[in-house]
Specification:
The protein is α+β, with helices and mostly antiparallel strands. Helix content is 53%, strand content 19%.
Amino acid sequence: MAERHRTHEALAVASRVQMIDTLRASPRALTAGELASACGLHVSTVRFHLDILARAGLVHSRSEPTGTRGRPRHLYTPTTAGGPESSAGTGYQLLASLLAAHWDGTADERSTRAERAGRAAAGAQQRSESPPRSLPLREAVAEVAGTFAELGFEPELVTEGAGVQMRLHACPFRAVAVAHPEVVCSLHLGLIRGALDGLGGAAAASSLEPFVEPHLCIAHVIPAEQVTAQ
């Protein structure tokens, strides 16, 4: 059971799944640098994820002497050839896809309900974890970004006028979001808005732009008073 938990935990982050898929598709073992280049990630990030994948038994590493002075290269290969049925996340992706596809109503109605569900989920989570707090805008956004990092979104915060962009570089439900953005992306926007509301309401997410780039979505967070003034 513990081994299965470690496997599910390791594959809960989209970048790690991407790295496993890249290793499986490669005809040879790859270095951390080669894997970073192929996945569009920083090499330090790749090494961090590789360590987790190795501890979960999903990746093998071996040293290859370079024939010159210096440290030997570390080469990485997947433990198994894998396939769609071997991914721990496949069942969840399928379930999410079915639920999103069969959520009744127009696109606007689905979007509204999904955002409402996200807000409710964020509120329930906060009530179960800690007493109410009131944080200034940037601290509130940083805390929400930390939660999204744990979920596997790889957030990056960028100043935008009086507000902040929360740039999400990975989506754990990307395949479902591409097919049903009115549900999945609205749910994520609701999660952000609900989480910010629970941190004192100094910050508000005005919008979420999905797939600005193939692996980038941007949430625009502004001072709450700007929302009421609009």
